[in-house]
Design a protein that fits this description.
- The chain is α/β, with parallel strands linked by helices.
- The protein has two domains: about 190 residues, Rossmann fold, CATH 3.40.50; about 160 residues, 3-Layer(aba) Sandwich (Rossmann fold), CATH 3.40.50.
- Strands 1-3-2-4-5-6-7 form a seven-stranded mixed sheet. The chain has a six-stranded parallel sheet with strand order 10-9-8-11-12-13, sandwiched between helices.
- Helix 2 links the parallel strand 2 and strand 3.
Length: about 400
C-alpha cells in the first residue's frame, strides 16, 4: 500500500501542508492514509514540519531533518504520527498510542497516561544528563582554577528518568555515548548521525595548510573546549586557528577571551558561518584539521560535518565519533595535550596528511549520511513493528 511522503522532497512539502492546516502549539498530526492505522506519538520537534526547506536554518542542525525523516518512516510503515515538542509540558495524550518516542523529559511525564501495550522508545541524542552536567561543571571549575574566572554553564540538562522508564532506546553515538546509559540495562539501537551538508574532496596543498586548524561549534564554548583550544594556540605562534561559532552569544566567555579571540595574530574569529556558503568552502580548502575537545556529546555534528569536508579530526573521546587511523583521539583534554596533537599534525608528512584527510572524508560518506540514517532507522522500525504485532 502506498503512503504519503515516499519522496524526500514531497515529505517537506507535505509536512508544511499538514502543519499549515492543522498546526497548533500542542500537536502536529500526520496521517498515513491507512484507514486501520495504529498511532505513534513523537516527542521531538515540531518546527521541521513548518519550516521552509530553503531556509538556511533548515540545515543548521541535523535534528531538523532527522525528526522529519523519523516521522516519514513511521508513516511509510502505515502508522499515523502525532508530533509534539520535546519540551511541551502541556500536552496529555487522549489517544490509544501503540508507540511513544521521546528524546528526554516527556518519557517519564507522559508514560502514566499511555496504554499498557504502548512501546516506549527513548531517542538519545546526547550523553546521559548526569554525565553531561558533571562534565560541563568540571570544565567550568578547571577554567576557574586556571584563569581565576567563573563563567556560566550553557549546556546543563534537566534530570530525567527517561532511560529507566523506556522499553528500549535508539542512540546517536558510539561506545562512549552508549556507556553513559549502560547502567539501565535497556536495549540500545545505534544510529549514525546524518549530515546537513556534503562536500567533494577539496584540493589542498598540504605543505601549505598543515599548520592551519579549525574550531567549529555552536552553544557552549567551554563545554566544547574552545577555551582550551584558544589557550593552546596562544602558545603555538606558527600554527593558525580559525574559530567558527556564535561566540558573541556568550558575552561572559567573549569578555574573558577577548584578547585571544580578537587580538592574537594567529587566531582568526569569524563568528557563525553558513556551512553552505562560499566563505565556509574557502575556510575548509585552506585548513588541515578540526580541533574539538568537547566534554560531552551524543555524536558531534561539527566533527561529522568537517570530516565530510576532508578535515582530519583531532577530538576528545567524549565527542562520540570514532576516528580509526585517520584522526587523533586526545588522551586528555588539556592545553598541553592539544598543543602536542596540533604539533604532531603540523609535522606530519604531506602524503600522510592527505591519506588521513581522505580517510576521514570517506568514512563520513560511508557512515554518516541521510541515506545511512534512513536505512538504519528503517530497520529499527521494522523490528519494532514485528515486536508490536507479536504482543
Amino acid at each position: 500500500m502506498a503512503f504519503p511522503w515516499c519522496n524526500l522532497n514531497q515529505s517537506v512539502v507535505r509536512a508544511r501542508q499538514y502543519a499549515s492546516r492543522f498546526f497548533c502549539r500542542d500537536i502536529v498530526p500526520l496521517r498515513s492514509g491507512n484507514p486501520d492505522a495504529e498511532r505513534v506519538l513523537l516527542s521531538y520537534l515540531t518546527h521541521p514540519f513548518r519550516a521552509d526547506p530553503d531556509d538556511p536554518a533548515f540545515y543548521s542542525h541535523t535534528n531538523t531533518w532527522e525528526c522529519l525523516q523519523m516521522a516519514r518512516i513511521w508513516l511509510q510503515h502505515g502508522y499515523d504520527v502525532d508530533v509534539i515538542d520535546w519540551d511541551n509540558r502541556i500536552f496529555r495524550p487522549d489517544k490509544d498510542y501503540l508507540v511513544f518516542i521521546d528524546i528526554h523529559a516527556n518519557m517519564e511525564r507522559l508514560s502514566p497516561f499511555l496504554p499498557e501495550r504502548c512501546r516506549k522508545i527513548l531517542h538519545i541524542t546526547g550523553a546521559h544528563w548526569r554525565f553531561q552536567n558533571e562534565a560541563e561543571m568540571k570544565r567550568i571549575t578547571d577554567l576557574e582554577k586556571r584563569r581565576g574566572i567563573r563563567l556560566l554553564p550553557r549546556r546543563q540538562v534537566p534530570p530525567s528518568r527517561g532511560i529507566e522508564v523506556a522499553d528500549c532506546a535508539t542512540i546517536l553515538g558510539n561506545a562512549f555515548t552508549r556507556g553513559t546509559f549502560s547502567f539501565a540495562g535497556k536495549p540500545l539501537y545505534s544510529l549514525p548521525l546524518s549530515t546537513t551538508v556534503e562536500f567533494p574532496f577539496p584540493a589542498r596543498v598540504y605543505g601549505t595548510v598543515r599548520n592551519r586548524f579549525l574550531w567549529l561549534g555552536m552553544a557552549g564554548m567551554v563545554h566544547k573546549g574552545l577555551d582550551l583550544v584558544l589557550e593552546a594556540f596562544t602558545g603555538l605562534p606558527d600554527c593558525h586557528l580559525t574559530v567558527c561559532g556564535p561566540v558573541s552569544r556568550e558575552p561572559d566567555f567573549e569578555r574573558a577571551y577577548e584578547k585571544e579571540l580578537y587580538r592574537t595574530e594567529n587566531i582568526h574569529t569569524t563568528g557563525f558561518v553558513d556551512l553552505r556558503s562560499e566563505r565556509f568552502h574557502s575556510i575548509i580548502r585552506n585548513t588541515c584539521a578540526l580541533v574539538y575537545p568537547s566534554c560531552s556529546e551524543g555524536q558531534a555534528g561539527s566533527v561529522i560535518t568537517t570530516m565530510h569536508a576532508g578535515l582530519i579530526p583531532v577530538i576528545s573521546a567524549e565527542s562520540g565519533v570514532d576516528v580509526e587511523d585517520f584522526g587523533i583521539m586526545l588522551p586528555e583534554c588539556t592545553v598541553g595535550a592539544i598543543k602536542n596533537a596540533v604539533t604532531t599534525i603540523a609535522r606530519t608528512p604531506e602524503n600522510e596528511l592527505e591519506r588521513m584527510a581522505k580517510g576521514a572524508w570517506q568514512y563520513a560518506r560511508d557512515e554518516h549520511t541521510r541515506k545511512k540514517f534512513t536505512e538504519r532507522y528503517g530497520r529499527f522500525v521494522q523490528k519494532i513493528n514485528r515486536k508490536t504485532q507479536q504482543r
